[in-house]
Design goal:
Structural class: mainly alpha
Radius of gyration: 20 Å
Distance between the termini: 54 Å
Number of strands: 2
Helix content: 55-70%
Order of helices and strands: HHHHEHHHEHHHH
Largest sheet: 2 strands, parallel
Number of domains: 1
Number of helices: 11
Strand content: under 5%
Strand order of the largest sheet: 1-2
């Protein structure tokens, strides 16, 4: 556990404060760096049409705070169980060897990718979960760094919990656990800043997630597009959908539009218009 690694007592109050304060400090640091670079300092290059909506920004930041505090409370029983050695988390590499260090990273990726995809899928398929849990995050149709963790607390908890419960299913080194929860936060900011430095079809990179915010029901994966492709919820950001304004998705210059609106969306939009 993070408190343990810092040499702090594993008491509920300390664990909660470390999770909440550390989480907020880390998130606002990387989100602020991304916002300053891409939306202010180099705005002309990355987001020339962006205009600050102060009301939306205040809302995003407010829900980040609410989400992290609520997540900290909901996650506390899991952290206490780990601290009491009810999980298979360990601290000494020699306990399972260096080979397992690499194996567990692969297992952790498969475990979290699968659980988070199907959790996210349920949020979008269940009217109840959509309205009362996940819709808050989709208030920001055009994402920016501060909207990355702008969640209802239950949403924040359910999408984060796979990273925290993995050690109850297989041995996870504490360092790998910390790296996992740290990296996923960085990844969340990166896929919400609408800046893509590299593209790989099987990676759920920034453009994929921007398209997810625009159309909602597609590109539900965490790091990869594996489950999206398998289930049929994948949409390529290199396709020029007719109602996505110029500049929202930064497509490669050599890509030609191949269609307008996906068939499933034509039906949805037609029904909405009636």
């Amino acid at each position: 556990m993070i408190a343990h690694l810092l040499g702090l007592p594993d008491t509920p109050g300390v664990m909660f404060l470390v999770f909440v304060c550390g989480g907020m400090l880390y998130f606002f640091l990387i989100a602020s760096i991304a916002y300053f670079l891409y939306f202010k300092k180099f705005k002309a290059k990355f987001h020339p049409t962006y205009e600050l909506d102060r009301r939306e920004m205040r809302s995003a930041i407010k829900w980040v705070v609410i989400g992290i505090v609520g997540n900290g409370l909901l996650m506390l029983p899991i952290h206490l169980a780990i601290a009491k050695d009810y999980s298979m988390m360990y601290y000494d590499v020699s306990e399972h060897g260096w080979g397992w260090m690499f194996v567990q990273v692969a297992l952790l990726l498969v475990f979290t990718e699968t659980l988070i995809y199907w959790t996210h899928w349920a949020f979008h398929k269940s009217p109840f979960l959509w309205k009362y849990v996940h819709e808050r995050h989709h208030k920001y149709k055009v994402p920016q760094p501060y909207s990355a963790l702008s969640f209802n607390p239950l949403d924040s908890f359910l999408q984060a919990v796979p990273h925290h419960i993995a050690a109850f299913f297989f041995p996870v080194h504490a360092g790998i656990y910390v790296a996992s929860v740290t990296f996923v936060t960085l990844w969340a900011v990166c896929i919400h800043d609408r800046v893509s430095f590299f593209r790989w079809p099987w990676l759920n990179y920034t453009d994929h997630h921007t398209l997810h915010h625009w159309y909602s029901d597609f590109n539900l994966g965490q790091y990869t597009t594996f489950w999206d492709r398998l289930v049929g919820t994948y949409r390529s950001p290199t396709v020029d959908y007719e109602d996505v304004p110029e500049g929202i998705i930064d497509r490669p210059p050599n890509v030609r539009p191949t269609s307008t609106l996906p068939t499933a969306l034509r039906t949805t939009h037609a029904e909405a218009a009636e």
